[in-house]
Amino acid sequence: MSTAKSFDIVVYGADKRGLEEVRAKFNLPEKVGIFAVGSHDKEGLLQLASQTKVILDTAGPFAVVGLGIVEACVAGGCHYCDITGEPTYVRHVIDNFHAEAQRKQLKIVNCCGFDCIPADLGTHMMVETMKERHITPKSVVFLADESKGSASVGTLTSILMLFEKNSIGELLRMLSPFYLNPRDERTSTVLSPKLPWLSFFRKLDSYHLGYDRHVKRWTAPYIMQAIDTRIVNRSNAISGWSYGESFVYYERMIAKNFFIAALVTFALAIVDVLLLLPPARMILKMLLPRLDRGPNQDLLDNGYFGMKLVGLGTDQQTGKDTKIFGSIFAEHGDPGYRQTAKMVTEAALCLAKNPTHSPQVYGVLTPSVAFGKTLRDRLFERGIEFRVEEEAN
After folding, report:
1. Which of the listed residues 4, 76, 200, 353 has the most CB atoms within 10 Å of its CB?
2. Can you tell me the distance from the alpha carbon of 85 to that of 155, in angstroms, rounded to the nearest whole number?
3. What whole-number distance in Å separates Cα of residue 212 and Cα of residue 308?
4. 310 touches 322 (CB < 8 A)
5. CA distance linking residue 285 with residue 160, whole number of Å
6. Residue 275 neighbours by CB under 8 Å, 6+ apart
7. Could you read off the pLDDT of 300-354 as tens digits, one per residue?
């Protein structure tokens, strides 16, 4: 077997025959090598990482198969990015590898897919724009507006395992919007800004039926808030509270009318209760399609997503409250598959090709802190458009 160093790109996985079939099916060039290694093969993973500049990991559930790969990357001196959306997994990565990755000047970047690139880079864009316009940021509202796509089987499996493998205590800790923030070095408690009770309450995930006065639409809870909110708050914390200690971020999903918003709110509440019950999880697991079943070709080719953002702040000259509007839009690809592939690939290329163009910070990072505007610009060129609008639309 050739070493990973012999190639520009290496496809790795446990099944060598399967890797060869993928290379043949997609007619990949000779410079794409194959490296057969299992997710629990410490020696093999270290060999791969020590010969590689960047490892891009897309195989979940990450809590089961991901930690060994991150460990190998840090030990072998290799950058890393993935598409996880599992909060507890990211917490484990931070606790176990942040200090060493920082010392070795490595970037370990979780959540580089649809979880959480739109939310994290979108918020970074809005805060950056407000500062450029001499507006002190107060909050960003992220509104999922429209999409055509499907939840991947891997994502659904990860959600089930999140409830299955973690204690009630850990699930309760995960309810904090600051769950992924750095820990206090003396007490090991997660750092959070000291806020009045009402301000802290506004930072919590929202599970209620609502009406957004900024876009004048009915809204329901958005399922991605469980990871997006924590990543955005970590971005703020590890960048020295650059958004402000009292900054508030929250997400909602726009519904076509009141009745759909109410239905979605009720349905999500029922699902949350079912996920806490082992018999219900067992039934849900039996209903899942096989892991090798993806979306149909129509969704892959014609899927899309659109998001709206509202940035609220105080004009530094007049002292008046003001707001700006933003949007994120991408078409010609299912958000959880083709668009996610674009996002994580461009993140990996930032690590491999543009290290000096990105912020010179290291450790276990979020996408916006690791890549800043560099990744946003690359994604725009690939058809994932981040824009600041002058008026709400």
Report:
1. 4
2. 8
3. 12
4. no
5. 7
6. 159, 160, 163, 281, 284
7. 889 999 999 999 999 999 999 999 999 999 999 999 899 999 999 999 999 998 6
- Could you give the C-alpha distances from 76 to 46, 52, 55, 107, 365, in angstroms and in order? 6, 9, 11, 13, 18
Per-residue tokens: 31: 């410079």
Q: Considering only CA atoms, which of 343, 386, 381 is closest in space to residue 109?
A: 343
pLDDT interval class at 1 (50, 70, 90): very low
SS3 category, 271 = helix
Amino acid identity of 320? Answer: K
Query: How do 135-148 and 304-315 pair as beta strands?
Result: antiparallel
Residue type at 58 in one-letter notation: T
E-only strand ranges, the chain? 9-13, 32-36, 54-57, 79-82, 107-109, 135-148, 210-212, 217-220, 248-254, 304-315, 321-330, 363-365, 385-389
Coil, helix or strand for 297? helix
List pLDDT tens digits, range 86-97. Answer: 999 999 999 999
> What pLDDT is attached to residue 2?
46
Q: How confident is the model at residue 227 (pLDDT cuts 50, 70, 90)?
A: very high
Closest CA to 235 of 31, 130, 40, 94: 94
Please write the tens of the pLDDT for every residue from 9-24. 888 888 888 888 888 8
Return the half-sphere exposure (C-beta side, CA atoms, 13 A cut-off) of residue 375: 32
Instruction: Tell whether the torsion through CA atoms of 342, 343, 348 and 354 is positive or negative.
Output: positive
Helix (H, G, I), strand (E, B) or coil at 205: coil
Give yes or no for a cis peptide into 279 (omega within 30° of 0): no
